[in-house]
């Protein structure tokens, strides 16, 4: 497929999406291009946020508190379904409108203008207001279904310690990313025939039963030429693709090539590569690589792409540039897809990689994917089922499967069977499950941080993925998505993600994890009673997360504290109507749900293991020094009495006990 054909297919895909999902063309173009950007790993989970006023516009945003990075997206739409050029003026105007949105949001000028016109835009403005003092990067993305000139992209700038970066994703760049995923041919490099050169190398004998290892030095001219031929197909196994020539690390690479080419080898870490096989020659006990089959760069994409970019300058001389290369030849009986991600993970030292990229082949995720391709969504009319949920086990999988469709009819059939709005990823799943496990404080720490904690939880407490487990996980997914819609309609003005997670955690807590998830799966929605219950809970939870224990604490940081959750569970909620939503044990033929989470069980065990003498001593010490409240001192004494009778503390007692112990140690108490 060439670029022209791809642009036509892309336009048809957009029309199909608008028809099936009842959305508008601009939002669908935005969503589709963002899917390709997500596929590179360069963004986390952007949200559509269509807002436009005179001189300002935004179509989507992505905020990653882990890296203090805010991404803003604006879309330039070219009508029609042919390959069309976008003028430089249109691209420049888009950057200006996006930049003005950020500046007015940060200054507080937009807060009143946005309130009634866009709920998601209001939340974005709130995020910018709260995060503006901690932001390190603000990245402006212009997206377009037309063909644009990269020369018009502004230079990156730094203002008040914030780096402002500019990116352009036109249909050409989208096609490039598509090509990477569309099953390109294996890359085979014949150094003797193509470059009249052999790579002198050191062969490391018997390093492993899985790989053969080589260390070599490759001339910069050859590496740049190879990249010029294969572009990012050479980086297909790389976790992250090229982050544009304007990224800070790439500017440094370019500078050293132009100014000190003879020192490039000393300054640069080199590249890590893999291959299926190599051909070698021996001469005077020296090993030379003459050919590499199925060559991939798994770390060093920034070095390689920057080297090629710089070589395009006619004044560049690469004759003195050499790069260290590590080559791991994967043996035939070893699954390459299981080995390469870890080579990339441990070799990477230049750009961050997402941990969620490295667990795709874990049995848990493989089984979740298997069930998602098998289990049809129950039909509301009792007729034939037509669609399924799509679990994206590996990043970009949904796009991959779309790209394999040969016709518009096949594509439409695929999108009916797997609607875009029923796609969910590994980080989504972690968010839903950790909320249900009553850990909204971990969910509030961001997608990747929460995912790492989720993976840790799976290792400590392995889960058997069965048909029932899968269906109930989908029920949790529906619960999360429906609550998200409810909170969005309330126009609370920010912290929607925190609100949703805390709401689910509270429902899980108040029902002892016995909410009737089977009903949600069978009906693919919540009961009217549950909708109403959720509606009544929102004001109390909203007031709670907006009232940190420490005055002046940032709301987002407060939501990350376990104290935020513990203090919420101590509040009174009328849950009489919630009893109607609880699945009776008699009806539940599957494994019983544990009363407490593993974390809660550990908390009870830890506090109950504290000796009675410690509790009594703590109470006496606190009284003598006038520390803590009389209630807390009395509680410590009572806990000692409970433990002295060989009884365990209740969950509520354990939470308070842990708080008292922590506070006492901070004040100087020693056991």
From TrEMBL:
Superkingdom assignment: Bacteria
InterPro entries: AIPR_C, AIPR_N
Record Pfam families: AIPR, AIPR_N
Domain Abortive infection phage resistance protein N-terminal: 30-176
Domain Abortive phage infection protein C-terminal, chain residue ranges per copy: 235-548
Protein name (record): Abortive phage infection protein
Organism the protein comes from: Bacteroides oleiciplenus
């Amino acid at each position: 497929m060439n670029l022209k054909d791809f642009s036509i297919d892309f336009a048809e895909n957009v029309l199909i999406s608008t028809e099936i999902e009842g959305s508008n063309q601009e939002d669908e173009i935005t969503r589709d291009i963002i899917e390709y950007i997500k596929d590179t790993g360069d963004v986390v989970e952007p949200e559509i946020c269509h807002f436009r006023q005179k001189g300002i516009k935004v179509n989507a945003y992505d905020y990653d508190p882990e890296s203090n990075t805010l991404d803003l997206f604006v879309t330039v739409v070219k009508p029609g379904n042919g390959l069309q050029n976008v003028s430089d003026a249109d691209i420049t105007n888009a950057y200006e409108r996006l930049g003005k949105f950020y500046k007015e949001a940060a200054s507080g000028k937009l807060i009143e203008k946005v309130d009634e016109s866009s709920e998601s835009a209001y939340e974005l403005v709130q995020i910018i207001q709260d995060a503006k003092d901690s932001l390190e990067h603000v990245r402006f993305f212009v997206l377009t279904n037309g063909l644009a000139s990269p020369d018009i992209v502004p230079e990156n700038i730094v203002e008040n310690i914030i780096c402002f970066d500019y990116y352009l994703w036109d249909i050409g760049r989208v096609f490039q990313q598509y090509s990477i995923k569309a099953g390109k041919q294996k890359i085979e490099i014949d150094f003797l025939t193509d470059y009249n050169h052999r790579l002198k190398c050191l062969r490391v004998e018997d390093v492993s039963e899985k790989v053969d290892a080589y260390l070599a030095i490759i001339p910069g001219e050859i590496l740049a030429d190879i990249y010029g031929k294969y572009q990012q197909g050479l980086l297909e196994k790389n976790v992250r693709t090229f982050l544009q020539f304007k990224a800070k690390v790439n500017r440094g690479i370019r500078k050293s090539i132009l100014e000190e080419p003879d020192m490039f080898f000393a300054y640069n870490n080199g590249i890590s590569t893999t291959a299926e096989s190599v051909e070698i020659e021996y001469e005077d006990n020296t090993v030379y690589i003459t050919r590499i089959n199925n060559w991939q760069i798994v770390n060093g994409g920034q070095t390689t792409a920057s080297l090629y970019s710089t070589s395009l300058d006619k004044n560049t001389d690469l004759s003195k540039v050499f790069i260290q290369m590590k080559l791991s030849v994967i043996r035939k009986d070893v699954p390459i897809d299981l080995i390469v991600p870890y080579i990339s993970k441990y070799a990477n030292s230049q750009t961050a990689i997402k941990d969620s990229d490295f667990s795709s082949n874990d049995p848990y995720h493989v089984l979740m994917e298997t069930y998602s391709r098998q289990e049809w969504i129950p039909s509301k009319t009792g007729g034939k089922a037509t669609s399924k949920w799509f679990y994206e086990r590996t990043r970009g999988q949904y796009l991959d499967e779309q790209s394999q469709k040969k016709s518009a009819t096949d594509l439409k059939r695929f999108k009916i069977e797997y609607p875009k709005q029923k796609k969910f990823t590994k980080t989504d799943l972690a968010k839903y499950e950790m909320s249900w496990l009553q850990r909204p404080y971990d969910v509030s720490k961001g997608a990747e941080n929460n995912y790492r904690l989720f993976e840790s939880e799976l290792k400590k407490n392995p889960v058997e993925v069965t048909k029932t487990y899968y269906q109930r996980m989908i029920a949790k997914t529906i619960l999360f998505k429906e609550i998200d819609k409810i909170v969005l309609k309330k126009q609370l003005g920010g912290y929607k993600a925190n609100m949703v997670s805390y709401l689910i955690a509270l429902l899980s807590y108040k029902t002892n994890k016995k909410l009737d998830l089977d009903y949600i799966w069978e009906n693919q929605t919540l009961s009217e009673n549950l909708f109403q219950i959720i509606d009544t809970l929102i004001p109390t939870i909203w007031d709670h997360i907006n009232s940190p224990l420490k005055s002046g604490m940032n709301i987002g940081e407060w939501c990350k504290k376990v104290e935020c959750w513990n203090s919420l569970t101590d509040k009174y909620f009328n849950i009489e109507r919630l009893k109607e939503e609880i699945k009776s044990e008699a009806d539940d033929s599957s494994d019983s749900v544990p009363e407490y989470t593993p974390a809660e069980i550990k908390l009870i065990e830890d506090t109950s293991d504290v000796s009675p003498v410690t509790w009594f001593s703590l109470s006496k010490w606190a009284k003598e020094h006038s520390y803590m409240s009389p209630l807390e001192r009395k509680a410590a004494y009572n806990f000692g009495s409970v433990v002295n009778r060989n009884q365990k503390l209740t969950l509520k007692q354990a939470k308070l006990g842990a708080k008292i112990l922590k506070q006492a140690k901070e004040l100087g108490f020693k056991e």
